[in-house]
Amino acid sequence: GENVEQHPSTLSVQEGDSAVIKCTYSDSASNYFPWYKQELGKGPQLIIDIRSNVGEKKDQRIAVTLNKTAKHFSLHITETQPEDSAVYFCAASTNTGFQKLVFGTGTRLLVSP
Amino acid sequence: DAGVTQSPTHLIKTRGQQVTLRCSPKSGHDTVSWYQQALGQGPQFIFQYYEEEERQRGNFPDRFSGHQFPNYSSELNVNALLLGDSALYLCASSLDSIYEQYFGPGTRLTVT
After folding, report:
1. Do B42 and A32 touch (CB under 8 A)?
2. Which of B43, B55, B58 lies nearest to residue A44, judging by beta carbons?
3. CA-CA distance, B95 to A64, in Å (whole number)?
4. CB–CB of A105 and B100 under 8 A?
5. pLDDT tens digit string along A39-71?
């Protein structure tokens, strides 16, 4: 069935460093790839998304890249800040009769001052 | 502009009981999707409601059912609760698609 793998499971960086989280997906028909940030005790917050007709999208310090051939997509955070510390989830759309989102298992990002 | 709201925040139930969780979508949204998030895992799709009908369902048993009202709010019902149903239940709203889904804060269900 549909599967989204996410790596690493944990990531520790120093404030100001860059962080990269990678995901791979199995459904070649996937065409939508959102990223969510989840802070403790809260629901996931949509931070950026990309569709399959675009290879890269940037919004201030965050960017997402998509490689459809390799079925990879990545989240890049530059100039990390302590408030970026959270769990990040990638997701990919699937087309099993009707579209739905399949989520990765999450990456816990810790940004140390 | 209110975002997605869910109630209650926390709930403790006993095995075999039934539970109802509620969700109000973001203003302007007409589609509600429900997800189950186990501790340390990503959200798992339960089902989606649009125009008061279940449009798509994930790999969840019939014990999980739902409803959408004319004002687009939604309920998730779980019957015959099992210990394994303990999780954070998330509601997400969108505009007639899976794109740009916005999540509520969730309801933490504990089954003892």
Report:
1. no
2. B43
3. 23
4. no
5. 998 999 999 999 988 889 999 999 999 999 999
pLDDT in the model for residue A108: 98
- Considering only the beta carbons, identify the residue of A46, A97, A102 that sits closest to B101: A46
> Are the Cβ atoms of B103 and A102 closer than 8 angstroms?
no
According to the model, what pLDDT value does residue A98 have? 67
Q: Does A93 touch chain B (CB under 8 A)?
A: yes
B70-82: pLDDT as tens digits:
999 999 999 999 9
Tokens standing for B64?
């999980």
Grouping H, G, I as helix, E, B as strand and the rest as coil, residue A5 is: strand
A107 near A11, Cβ under 8 Å?
A: yes
* B45 contact A CB<8A: yes
Q: How far is the C-alpha of A40 from the C-alpha of A94, rounded, in Å? A: 28
CA distances from B23 to A47, B1, B63 (A): 22, 16, 19
Following CA atoms A72, A6, A44, B58 in sequence, which dihedral angle do they give, to the nearest 10 degrees? 90
C-alpha angle A84-A87-A92 in degrees, rounded to nearest 5 = 115
Contact in structure between A54 and A39 (CB atoms under 8 Å): no
A44 touches chain B (CB under 8 A): yes
Whether the CB of B31 is below 8 Å from some CB of chain A: the reply is: no
